[in-house]
Amino acid sequence: MRRTARLVPILTLAAGSALLPAAVAHSAAAAAPATPPPVEEEAADTTSEQRVVQRYWTEAKMEAAQPLTALAPRKNGMRLTAEASASQAEAAPVSIPPTTADGDAVAPLRAGTAAHTSNGSPWTRGGAVTKTAGRVFFTYQGRNASCSGNAVTSENKSTVITAGHCVKMGGAFHSNWVFVPGYDGGNRPHGTWVATTLYTTPQWNNSEDINHDMAAAVVAPLNGQRLTDVVGGQGVAFNQPRRQQMHSFGYPAASPYDGSKLIYCSGRAFDDFLMSRDLGLNCTMTGGSSGGPWFLSFNESTGLGTQNSVNSFKYNFASGWMFGPYFGTDARAVYEAAQGTGTP
Questions:
Q1: What would the pLDDT profile of 101-115 be if each residue is shown by its tens digit?
Q2: What is the DSSP string of 185-220?
């Protein structure tokens, strides 16, 4: 395994606010404004390494994996200013639709559709999210740990979005990184998918900036199939208006949860007014839910939506709030780099 991180060039990004079919999401045209390139880390990029990682994750190791210590922003963290908000609003919005396992694009839910409100309840309505969302397992500083992640529409059909601290923390990338979509009480109904490449934002890589706590993983094919050919892919969007209705999902593993079930929160997002530029949501999920997806236009009947953030951090004095990074141009660059990466 070659453990070398490097900056990757930003690929051509699709411009405009129209929904893009999956087949052209990566190739449609016009260069985006200059954005710092994401950082790439090679993981298990050979077949032999992937077999080793597959064997490593026994059921017992997964059940014993512990969530990472809860994150918190620095006391001198950057708040959302009017200038920063205006800059975000100027960037061209892009929204890529969810796709079925057959590769068909799915129309988004229309705005204003009624949704249930939850601060941290088990998800019992089934649908696509029970396949695309899953647990993430990895080794961090010698111990086994867990996060959450989500499979998204992508050119390589092999891209998972998660939090930055779920791929790198404390100055080093995690090892033995796998994604288990649809994890349910120890069962792995759709298999264990081994990461070949990890990506994160330069801001998270360089200084663990909480405002850019976002990452993506490219996973190797399993039994001759690619990830979204098996579980489908949720949509993904960048540079969207703030303070919208959102659904958040994850596998919290710290008390009172145990990591065995998919949990969700839903409500209208708010802007963090304390020490970050993140979005906030009323949500009691705990450690282990990090990296789980936040959706716009989520359809509770089909379980399909458009990912627009991830579970990132909580303030220790406000356990009822969850915060997630704004998906702007830097998050988009990570997604583009990941989805354009081939798999062995």
A1: 888 888 766 544 556
A2: TTB-TT--EEEEEEEE-HHHHHH--GGG--EEEEE-
